[in-house]
Amino acid sequence: MIKFIASDMDGTLLNGDHDIDKETVEAINRAENAGITFAISTGREYESVKGLLEKHNLRVQCVLSNGAEYRDEDGNILEVINIKEESAKKIIELLDKNHLSARIFTDKGTFTTSTEEEALREVIFRTMSFNPELSEDEAREVAENLGFFTSLQYIDDVEEFFKGGVEVRKFVAFHNDIELIDEMKKTLGEIEGLAVSSSFRDNIEVTDINAQKGIILEKITSRNGLANNEVMILGDSFNDYSMFEIFEESVAMENAIDEVKAIAKYITSSNNDLGVAKAINYAVDNELNKILKSENNL
To answer: Name one GO cellular component term (predicted).
Structure first.
C-alpha cells in the first residue's frame, strides 16, 4: 500500500512554465485526504521552493539540495548533511581554476566566489536554458531580477568565509560548454566523499556522498515506520537516480532521461501533460480499490 509519495520538481512536478498545474495540486490534496503523505524531492534550496508552496497553499515535507537537507511541512530542518570543509575548499579551487561560476548553498544563504558580472552570466545562461525562446538581452533583464542572482552573497576571501563556521550544503553551476561540464563532473568525482550529479545536461551539482535524494528519503521514511514498497517516487534526471535505485515503486516522466526510464517501474506522461497528477491519481485509485476489496471480503 502506498503511504508516501515523493516527487522531483524541475522537469517533473513543474510544467514548462516552471509552475504547478491546478490539476496536480488537486491530485496532491486528494492523496493527502486519502492518508498518503506527499513530499517534494528537489535539488533546489528551500527559499526557491517556499514561494511555490505558498502560492498553491501546499504544506509538504521537502528533500532539498539533492538530499543535503530535509524539512517538515512547516519548514523546520529535520536532517542536514554538509560537505566537509576540506572538500568544499577543493571544489572551490577547481571551479575557480576552470572559470566555472557556481552557487554555494549554505546555512547562511547562497554564496559565490565569482564576480557579480560572472555570476550574472551564469544566471543568464540558466535563464536561457530554462526559457530557450528568450534572447540574451531578454534573459539578462529577467536574470537581473531573479532571486537566484539578487540573493547572492560574494566571497572575497575563502579562508575568512570558512572561519565564520558556515555549513556548505551544495554546489551548483550552469555552463554552455558541455565538454567543460562533463570534464568537471569527472574531476570533482575523483574527490573522495562527494556525490556529483546534475538536473540538466548543462549543469553540475555537488553534495556530500550521503546527501542524495534516495538516501535521505529512505532514512526519513524508515524512521516513520514505512517500508520501501510503501513509498512511490517520481523523477526525470540524474539527481533522481538514487531514488530509483532504492524505491521499487518508481515512476519516470515521459520526458525523463533514458537512464532513469530504464530503471523505472512505471512511466507516466510528461511534465507538460500532467504526468505527476496522473501518477498520483493512479496510486490513490489503486489504494482505494484495495481498501474496498478488503472491506468486501470482511
So the answer is: cytosol
